[in-house]
Amino acid sequence: NTASVLIAHHHERWDGYGYPYGLRGTLIPLGSRILSIADTFDKLTSPCPHGDGQPFEKAVQVLKGGSGLRFDPDLTEQFLLLIPTLFNVEHEIQFSLSHYSPVGNLVS
Q: Does 47 sit behind a cis peptide bond, omega within 30 degrees of 0 on the bond before it?
């Protein structure tokens, strides 16, 4: 039940212009506010059928531009502080995967 509430409200906006109920500010459940920021960042940076995801820098610009309008400004600031850590983790995963060859492991 809690997860469904958080998901249902993650399209609400800090300024009250979201949906489904037009909630604003702290009337939006905390988890939904966090989910909104994370979901937007993920959508911007993840590859899609039409091409590669946007660079982290572009996603940061979008989040900063939405802070106080679409997103909780305090949570946005905290999330942006995590970007360097997320960036390093992404590169570590890519480096790790570049040394992994599933086909080679099957053949040898």
A: no
The count of other CB atoms within 10 Å of the CB of residue 30 is: 11
Q: How many other CB atoms are there within 10 angstroms of residue 44's CB atom?
A: 17
The residue whose two tokens read 């959508």 is 43
Statement: the pTM of the whole predicted model exceeds 0.85: no
Distance, in Å, from the CA atom of 94 to the CA atom of 91, rounded to the nearest integer, reads 5
Read off the pLDDT band of 87 (50, 70, 90): confident
Find, among 2, 4, 1, 25, the residue nearest to 13 by Cα. Answer: 25
Beta bridge partners of 48: 51
- Specify whether domain 2-100 bears CATH 3.30.70.20: no
Mean pLDDT of 22-45: 96
* Encoded tokens for 44: 């911007």
Q: What is d(CA 16, CA 35) in angstroms, rounded to the nearest whole number?
A: 16
